[in-house]
């Protein structure tokens, strides 16, 4: 019989103030207390269902080809397998004590329980690389640093990232860049090509201008060359993210320069070079020209009193790493879903026509705010295909979940992607239905707020959430205003690196709405009121 842990709860402070007592005998000793307080018998962490765990290797054998049931690049499938076999709480030991959560109530409990400085256990090799390079960095950067040092960085940099006002100032610039994409599609895209390459270039351009007031000229013929600055920056951003998860699981890189670690270092070095060149250019520009219309994030960073250049360099590298693939992959999936769901695409088009009656009108913050249905499409696509399978946290205090004691220091992975595809939480979960988010729709569903968390939650959530949502929305609006979009491939799935990359080419077709839809346009035109 498994040992129980008896927890004497003090009702005023449910999780923190308890005495854990091992052994069933203790129940009798505490009989009196049981009547006065609430006593809960908690099972041990070890008793949580999960794959068989061996000494030293834990559950790592499950990731071995031909032997294990898991695929390191299909974490969504591993999670679904776990959920089917073991239920809503799954214990794993891939080198650390890890717990997967599928129930949004438990996910909520974890985030509500989070500390002032939520901790993530990720980017360990990158942290090691940066903290050993003191001539360039002061810290591991926002993505990999924890504790008070993380908060010092976050509170310094987040002001200009997060407020709705500071995000809106980038709408018109972003729209101008998306127009360059439209031009590139018209001039160079052949239906059925991999559109992801275009989206990577688009998002490098957007982040370049929004964050650093820097254009990479990504769509020019010269920049298509694989040795160009834009191509190498996109490759280095991908190279930085690609190995993170495998490096986090392993430890060999601590002793030898493994190929994955080497790739990470090369990629980081290239991003550092790009960041430093831009920083030097901007500083000398601002010295000469104090005034002028420049809303980029870098200018606001440089305006912060007492900020260290090394912290700015680190933040710039983090931005380059975090912005390109995430937004490009997310936009790929929105386009994929809209291309395969013509009714939804028509509804987006109808909405955009009502907001942008003239095709050449600029998209403004007010227009983005009114594009309710388009925003629901983005939300629905992020429910089905978030770029992260879930959110990672390290527990900083013990917690009780579903009758188990989950000890401090356990690594938690909230399995939002899989949970968002379960029928107990969403109606017909595998169907793309933006209406489920639209309050005015009869198909609106009251979805648990902790079920779909594509940008994480709380003080450690994505620093650029508003910006990213805005960028995707503008891209979708401009593209659907110009083109009818079709899908030329099969089912599009994911490969999970640190972020979920489409597992196949993003084969879209673009038909100009000018050529065939004069009548359709009329059909969708908002009715004139008398
Ligand atoms: C659709 C696009 C994006 C998605 C889905 C996304 C998602 C996420 C997620 C899930 C996290 C972890 C949150 C947590 O632990 O609670 C995160 C963190 C972060 N993201 Fe994003 N992100 C996106 C775009 C961006 C962009 C455009 C930037 C930069 C311009 C960015 C910068 C960051 C940074 C720096 C962090 C670390 C924040 C911290 O630890 O304090 N992300 N993002």
UniProtKB/TrEMBL annotation:
UniProt xrefs under Gene3D superfamilies: Cytochrome P450 (1.10.630.10)
Cofactor: heme
Entry superkingdom: Eukaryota
Keywords attached to this entry: Heme, Iron, Metal-binding, Monooxygenase, Oxidoreductase
Keyword Metal-binding annotated: yes
Family: Belongs to the cytochrome P450 family.
Protein name stated in the entry: Cytochrome P450 CYP302A1
